[in-house]
From TrEMBL:
Transmembrane segments: none annotated. InterPro entries: Aminotrans_3 (IPR005814), PyrdxlP-dep_Trfase (IPR015424), PyrdxlP-dep_Trfase_major (IPR015421), PyrdxlP-dep_Trfase_small (IPR015422). This is Aminotransferase class III-fold pyridoxal phosphate-dependent enzyme. GO terms for molecular function: transaminase activity. Belongs to the class-III pyridoxal-phosphate-dependent aminotransferase family. It comes from the Bacteria. Keywords: Aminotransferase, Pyridoxal phosphate, Transferase. Coiled coil: none annotated. Its cofactor is pyridoxal 5'-phosphate.
Length: 455
């Protein structure tokens, strides 16, 4: 439990906020009840129930940094589809591109005229020359693991405790009392994941080296900054040393930039001089249209091609018929060339810095032992004085009751943040007034819930 907050006040506040939400959203309530007749769990995807609301909020339209619900209420969106709309909802160049493509065909299982330019732009941004496409980062990560296992002849993948790489089964392994353990939350898995997945703590070089020394690790799959369990930054020099170890022991490094593309046009790895063997980027690059891409170094691409050409004929198990469809490629090209610009990033960085400093000021004013971390356009506050150094530390300071209370309080004041933790994104359409409004509401929540000192 987080220090400095009054649990009784939080529980009373949540009860009042739930009543307020119900009263203000009769149309969302009606739509939720209607949908519940035919949608499993009452929603199109069961994660949509993971918000703090009594029933799902139904969105009617979204544009830029705002969306409107079915009851007509407008919200400033600091969640932005948990990164899928990182550059704003329905960016105009993407909207125009998909409108043009809508009359020219959606998919043909053949290259479109946009495919080459998109791959060239990805190569320019990320410094990796050879690319392939998928429909989601989950698929892209899954495909990369297959390619790299085939290319190296090694079966194991190494991930970090508390990591997130989509719905790839291989990564659902955590450290529990220092023992690699398959997550209980993974439904329907009949194979023992720990046979082929190794897990260590982030920022622990000795543990990483001990695992790599076994000589059976095909690749290390990592976000350069952990983002799913609350943000965990690499310690100074960690990635420099890690890359040397990975190379020394014959493994490969795969960097997942799906979230950390918030760090700049070429992601965190390019901004910080990292040299991964492969890179995955998902939902943000198409402006919210389902798509993803993965890239290889020249040397790895040749190994991958050799593995494919040396294999028996038949389906590789990699790729789908809708991968690189014309609709997605048009959206990616427009988003990469006209939306994810240097200027857009500069604007986002400035606003995120304003937001991060504002959060620190509010937290300090209320005397709370919390910290704030910023990675480009992405900001997060955590319930601990010092930023966590690994997944275990990040997990230990999470407080579901407090998080849900903050999220609901802000939502009822027209402000949306990510439901799974305390992450906030700004996009090119976010304004300084939007940030000030968020900070004022956050200050109001703390004023209502912090533990009053008794003299």
């Amino acid at each position: 439990m987080s220090a400095g907050v009054n649990r009784q006040r939080i529980q009373a506040l949540v009860a009042a906020e739930r009543e307020s939400y119900i009263a203000r959203h009769p149309e969302s309530a009606r739509l939720a009840a209607e949908a519940g007749q035919h949608l499993l769990f009452g929603v199109p995807m069961h994660w949509m129930n993971d918000w703090s609301t009594p029933f799902p909020l139904t969105v009617r339209e979204a544009s830029g940094a705002r969306f409107r619900d079915a009851d007509g209420h407008e919200y400033v969106d600091f969640c932005l589809g948990d990164t899928g709309a990182m550059f704003g909802h329905a960016p105009q160049p993407v909207a125009q591109a998909i409108a043009r493509q809508a009359t020219r065909g959606y998919t043909a299982m053949l290259p479109s005229e946009d495919a080459g330019p998109v791959a060239a732009e990805l190569a320019r941004r990320f410094g990796l020359p050879c690319w392939q496409f998928a429909l989601s980062a989950s698929d892209a990560n899954r495909f990369v693991l297959r390619w790299l296992r085939a290319a190296t002849g090694r079966s194991k993948v190494l991930v970090f405790n508390g990591c997130y790489h989509g719905t790839v089964d291989d990564v659902f392994v955590d450290l529990v009392d220092c023992v690699p353990t398959q997550r209980d939350s993974l439904l329907g898995q009949v194979h023992t994941l720990t046979d082929h997945t190794v897990v260590v703590e982030f920022n622990d070089l000795p543990a990483l080296e001990a695992a790599l020394q076994q000589g059976d690790i095909a690749c290390v799959l990592a976000e350069p900054v952990m983002t799913n369990i609350g943000m965990v930054l690499p310690q100074p020099g960690y990635w420099e040393a890690s890359q040397q170890l990975i190379k020394h022991y014959g493994a490969l490094l795969v960097i997942d930039e799906t979230h950390t593309i918030s760090s700049g046009p070429g992601g965190y790895a390019r901004a910080h001089g990292m040299m991964p063997d492969a890179l995955v980027i998902g939902k943000p690059i198409g402006g919210g249209i389902p798509c993803a891409a993965y890239g290889f170094t020249e040397e790895l691409a040749r190994r991958v091609e050799h593995a494919k050409r040396s294999a028996p004929p038949g389906h590789s198990g990699i790729g789908t018929t809708l991968s690189a469809n014309m609709f997605a490629m048009a959206a990616m090209r427009a988003n990469l060339e006209q939306v994810m610009t240097e200027q857009a990033y500069r604007q986002m960085f400035a606003l995120a810095a304003q937001l991060a400093q504002g959060l620190r000021d509010v937290i300090a004013r209320h005397g709370l032992p919390w910290c704030v971390t910023q990675i480009g356009a992405r900001t997060e506050f955590q319930f601990t004085v010092q930023p966590p150094r690994n997944g275990a530390e990040a997990h230990d300071v999470m407080d579901a009751e407090l998080e849900q209370a903050i999220h609901l309080y802000l939502l009822n004041r027209g402000l949306l943040i990510t439901p799974f933790h305390n992450m906030l994104l700004v996009c090119p359409d976010t304004t300084g007034d939007d940030v000030a409004r968020l900070l004022s509401a956050f200050d109001g929540f703390l004023a209502d819930t912090i533990q009053k000192q008794i003299c």
